[in-house]
């Protein structure tokens, strides 16, 4: 990442690589205290056990830490939320003891730590200095002229107001420029829109048929105010980058022992009929369980990946509900992973995640990991 080479940004960042989570879980005394605190927060009726309703805040925080959208917004992500809840209740229990809660929480946290070790999250403190440097460096004007001509001078944008053009141009800036993600509603509502509105009088806001000079003048004025605002009230942003290129799947498929082990773990919780057969409708659930071993994101977290998975499932008639022997089920799963691997090797998916952290990193929230705003691109 370009930001890593910037001395100022190096001083303003913290890397979350999962080591703190591992340290927490492996320190029995500290982890017991952590579990006790979280359990008491969730146990609203103080009966010493957690009901399905009481577990919901924990499930929601775990989903957020995994980068999933809120419950109820996606069928695929809701399936994952359901699987997390089933991990606690084992699919049948109505109440969960503190011991059971601790065991499952430990497994989930260690799984997250493994993911962070593979794909660390960088916590950036954005204080306006990098943004100010951007607008005063020699290449600033040519870069914004490029934005003006490529994004703002089309026939559709030519009739947009000055206000709309500036907002759109701000959205083209990234954390590499020192700008918090405008895709985050909090940034838009608390920084972008208030500052744009304060910098432009009503007549200027409605101004159209903009010249290049007029746009650059107004835009620079707004960015200077944004930098000043960040200097007065810095914003904390979580940033991560990852490329899914199929290499993780290839490693898993080439190691039969590890592949069988991952499938056997996933199949333990899948219902079977009296003949030991499994319905193909569970292919998606098993794939989601195996995903970390194949270096794939959770289903529902990356839309481009979901499209590839859907296509791979369709190729094997994954939704026909047919009952098959376990060996055939495993063979079908290998075919699905192989199809996904070939797609990713031909067209890797790069994902950049940026999220404003609205609370301090030492917050008492259940799992203080941010829900990322995700930008996807195919290389």
TrEMBL record:
InterPro entries: EF-hand-dom_pair, EF_Hand_1_Ca_BS, EF_hand_dom. SUPFAM superfamilies: EF-hand (SSF47473). Keywords: Calcium. GO terms for molecular function: calcium ion binding; protein kinase inhibitor activity. It comes from the Eukaryota. GO terms for cellular component: cytoplasm; nucleus. Residues 30-65 form the EF-hand domain. Pfam families: EF-hand_7 (PF13499). The keyword Calcium applies. This is EF-hand domain-containing protein. It comes from Eutrema salsugineum (Saltwater cress).
